[in-house]
Automatic annotation (TrEMBL):
Domain Biotin and thiamin synthesis-associated per the UniProt entry, residue ranges: 258-361
Required co-factors: [4Fe-4S] cluster
Keyword S-adenosyl-L-methionine: yes
Pfam families: BATS, Radical_SAM
GO biological process terms held by the UniProt record: thiamine biosynthetic process
Keywords on record: 4Fe-4S, Iron, Iron-sulfur, Metal-binding, S-adenosyl-L-methionine
One function term, GO molecular function aspect: catalytic activity
InterPro entries per the UniProt record, alphabetical: Aldolase_TIM, BATS_dom, rSAM, rSAM_sf, ThiH, ThiH/NoCL/HydG-like
Protein name as catalogued: 2-iminoacetate synthase ThiH
Keyword match ATP-binding: no
Length: 374
């Protein structure tokens, strides 16, 4: 039994009325628990009643839990885009095959140049990102890429097409530490509507990726949904259900949850159900209270002022100085970005902002004590 089998037993649309039916008493019951929260508790924490009447209490609780578990450190990572070539046609993505623009796959020399530029920014936590194209950027390519990047990365992450258990196990021997794979949406109808061509149309294959990662013994797995693609209540309840499943079945695996809000993309895409700032705040607090051990990640999709406000609430990993185009650190402006960066501050500016909030930037991994001075 995989998580796909588990969630296929239910109608995920029923998550929305469950959330909407939560009362103040339900919220108070969830907040009274020290641990062992279930899906009903999470539903209460993301309900409208929680947002209207208890958000301040949730924020204080979330901050205290984060400081207790993670101290005052914030893990800094940087995405390195390997290619904008993709075989999928996804309605919301700038790299979709439907969009016509120059495509590229970085050479080993270009990757090394990117790594040198990234190290100069202070980063040793590198996230490899690629469009999904198995022919040009599949396992043969990754076998060449990882040994090069690992020379520059104390912590190496990937966000690429879903691979097999055997492939992940092999990449682990080449230095892979973590993998992020976002389900985009857990709603079958919405998933089918937005994935129009390519292997990504196979919802089961994608949703079972965290299972394969757990089986391969990958240290850390990142999951999440694209906020704005479907009803956020439905997708976030499904993410919480996924967290519970992973905790039960792959208890040695560390987990991360991200909050990617969809932005307009090449091809004219506009988010279908925009998620407000207050709901993002609520989600951060709800996930922290729901699972104290989760790494919570926020990218440069969000603007500077908003990031400075939400990071102390419970965020443990952020990017800064990011580029979402291949070769964007050594040769910026050559290719199309996957999405527009909204916090375009320098790394030093973001680190300084963290210090103002009495937080320390960690450029290795959250388990290290390596800090960067401003």
């Amino acid at each position: 039994m995989s998580f796909f089998d588990e969630i296929s037993k239910i109608d995920v649309d029923k998550f929305a009325p469950l959330v909407e039916s939560r009362t103040d008493a339900d919220v108070e019951r969830a907040l009274a628990k020290e641990d062992g929260l279930d899906l009903d508790d999470f539903a209460a924490l993301i309900s409208e009643n929680a947002r209207i009447h208890y958000l301040k209490e949730m924020a204080y609780r979330s901050m205290n839990l984060t400081r207790r578990r993670f101290g005052r450190t914030v893990n800094m990572y940087l995405p390195l885009y390997l290619t904008n070539l993709c075989s999928n046609r996804c309605a919301y993505c700038g790299f979709s095959t439907a969009n016509k623009f120059p495509r590229t796959v970085l050479t080993m020399q270009e990757i090394e140049e990117e790594c040198v530029a990234i190290n100069k920014l202070g980063y040793e936590n590198i996230l490899l990102v690629s469009g999904e194209n198995e022919r040009r950027a599949g396992m043969p390519y990754f076998r060449e890429v990882l040994p090069i990047v690992k020379k520059y990365a104390a912590f190496l992450q990937m966000e690429v097409q879903p691979l097999s258990t055997e492939d992940y196990a092999e990449l682990k021997t080449l230095g892979l530490d973590a993998v992020s794979v976002y389900q985009e949406t857990y709603h079958p109808g919405c998933y089918k509507k937005n994935h129009l061509a390519g292997k990504k149309m196979d919802m089961r294959w994608r949703m079972e990726t965290p299972d394969r990662l757990g089986q391969a013994g990958i240290d850390k797995v990142g999951i999440g949904a694209l906020l704005g693609l479907y009803d956020w209540k439905v997708d976030c309840m499904a993410v919480a259900m996924h967290v519970l499943y992973m905790r039960k079945n792959y208890w040695k695996t560390r987990l991360s949850v991200s909050f990617p809000r969809l932005r307009p993309a090449a091809g004219g895409f506009q988010p279908h159900t925009p998620v407000t700032d207050s709901k993002i705040i609520q989600l951060i607090c709800a996930f922290r209270i729901f699972d104290h051990e989760l790494d919570l990640t926020i990218s440069t999709r969000e603007g500077a002022e908003f990031r400075d406000m939400i990071i102390p609430l419970g965020i443990t990993a952020v990017s800064a100085g990011s580029s979402t185009e291949p070769g964007g650190y050594a040769h910026k402006g050559k290719y199309l970005e996957q999405w527009t960066v909204n916090d375009d501050r320098s790394v030093d500016e973001v680190v300084a902002a963290l210090h103002k909030n009495n937080l320390e930037a960690v450029f290795h991994d959250a388990s290290t004590t390596y800090f960067r001075a401003v």
